[in-house]
Design goal:
Layout (H helix, E strand, L loop, with lengths): L33 H6 L24 E9 L3 H5 E3 L6 H11 L6 E2 L11 E5 L2 E27 L10 E2 L5 H16 L16 E2 L3 H6 L10 E4 L2 E25 L2 H12 L2 E3 L6 H9 L6 E4 L4 H9 L10 H4 L8 E5 L2 E10 L4
Parallel strand pairs: 2-4, 6-8, 10-12
Antiparallel strand pairs: 1-11, 1-13, 3-9, 4-5, 5-7, 5-9, 8-9, 12-13
Helix pairs in contact: 7-8
Length: 354
Amino acid sequence: MPSSDAGRHATKRASSQSRSRDARPSGRSGTSRRAVLAASAGVAVTAAGGCLERIRGATSSSRDLALFLSARDGSLRERHVEDLDETRIPWDEEAFSAALAGETYTTTYREPFYARDEPTYARHDGTYYELGSVVVDEVTHTHPVVRLATVGRTDQLDSVPDHVAHSELPQTDRRAVQIAYMAARARGNEGGVPWDLVERGGYVYRDPDDVEASRLLDESGPSHVAFRDRIYAVEVTHERFHEPVYRPTVEPVADSEDAMEEILRARLVDAHVDRESLSEDARSVLLDARRDEGYAESHPYSDAFETVLRQLGERAYVDGDVRNDAIETGVTRKLLRYDGRYFDYRLEFDESGQ
């Protein structure tokens, strides 16, 4: 059965350009107003031009709540729907065809359609489908695992052991060395490891064709490999794996672009905000939030900022115990539908004070 270690490609969200305004509700946008407020902490600030300002103390314990918006171009379909007539991934194509035909088709380790985290949608012959999978069994397999151990730099070793150059290896081994190197580099050092690629501290060969083509796995294979000016010792083990068996699921959900867009909005959009329901001050908050530094205020917030937070459904930041109830760990991006467009947004506390 074929297999693949390919992972998802993270999608980079496009950053949006922003415009400046002469009048904004109280907050950090462009030049900070905290210094001005600190100098006049005891002076009441009156409403001017319909914008009501609140007095905020500039103490070392104050902190800003910042809102950041980044516009998404295009429709949700363009980002979340694959066209199976154009994207020819062999194992997914086989899974899709088998599911449509009602045939039994299973995969081991590799989950069909990469549907592990969220549903995958696809368009085929004018129909939109939701693609997924269910676990139907567990199997055990023994797979070769390659790990690398750092020996040293080639220009610093007194004696360089016999080795093979990375470029001289078959493609499957070159990939294994690149991934096992990431794990070897991280051992004993601070830094991250791409755990979606590294497994058991190295690289696991699951495809029988890759095992057959491998030079590293051969009994007479090289004991050392040179990669990026260093020599690494090659360790090969054969280890037991317990792996799920997946059956693909394919469900038709829409037969038009508009219907598919509505489904994606229902699944993915966290907040819908009607521009016409907002005051001019609240609109300015959302406009300023698109700047690189975002829009920020310290508590208690202005009426405009509170309106925006409530419209976003982020009531934990304005109702109850703001410091303890609001989510402060792990900045989470959410999706906003505003004025006919989609925006990624996030809220973030700044403890430093300005």
